[in-house]
Write a structure and sequence with these properties.
By secondary structure, the chain is mainly alpha-helical. The protein contains 3 helices and 4 strands. It has helices at 49-53, 56-91, 97-111, and strands spanning 6-7, 14-17, 20-23, 39-40. The strands form 2 sheets. A two-stranded antiparallel sheet has the order 1-4. Strands 2-3 form a two-stranded antiparallel sheet.
Length: 114
C-alpha cells in the first residue's frame, strides 16, 4: 500500500473496497494511474487552524525575505559576470593559447586522462 494523498489497494491492478478486492485490468506495473475506486483525502481537516494563524505573519515574512535574497543573489551574480567580462578583456589578448593547450595536454598525460 502506498500513500501520496490517495489510498489504493495492494497493487496497481487491484483496488480494495469494503466488499474485497476489485481487479482493474487496464492497470499495469508501469502505469501508476489511479484506479477508479481511489479515495482522495483532504489533508486540510487535519490542520489546526488556530495554531497555524499564529504563524501566518512569520510565514509571510519568510516568503518575502527569501524572495528578496534570491533577487539580491541574482543581481550580485550579474555584477560578478560583468566584472569577469571586463577582466577578460585585459588578459585575453596577452594569453598564449598554444602554451595553455600544451600545459593542459601535459597535465592530462600526467594524470592518465584522455
Amino acid at each position: 500500500m502506498w500513500y501520496s494523498g490517495m489510498i489504493t489497494g495492494r497493487s496497481p491492478a487491484c483496488c480494495w473496497n469494503s466488499s474485497g478486492p476489485k481487479h482493474w485490468p487496464e492497470a499495469t506495473t508501469s502505469s501508476p494511474a489511479p484506479a477508479p475506486c481511489t479515495l482522495k483525502i483532504r489533508s486540510t481537516r487535519f490542520v489546526d487552524r488556530e495554531n497555524l494563524s499564529g504563524f501566518r505573519a512569520r510565514l509571510r515574512f519568510n516568503d518575502r525575505a527569501a524572495s528578496e535574497l534570491i533577487d539580491q543573489a541574482v543581481a550580485l551574480m550579474a555584477q560578478a559576470k560583468n566584472c569577469h567580462d571586463e577582466l577578460e578583456t585585459y588578459y585575453r589578448t596577452a594569453v598564449n593559447f598554444a602554451q595553455v593547450d600544451a600545459a593542459a595536454a601535459q597535465c592530462m598525460e600526467l594524470f592518465g586522462v584522455g
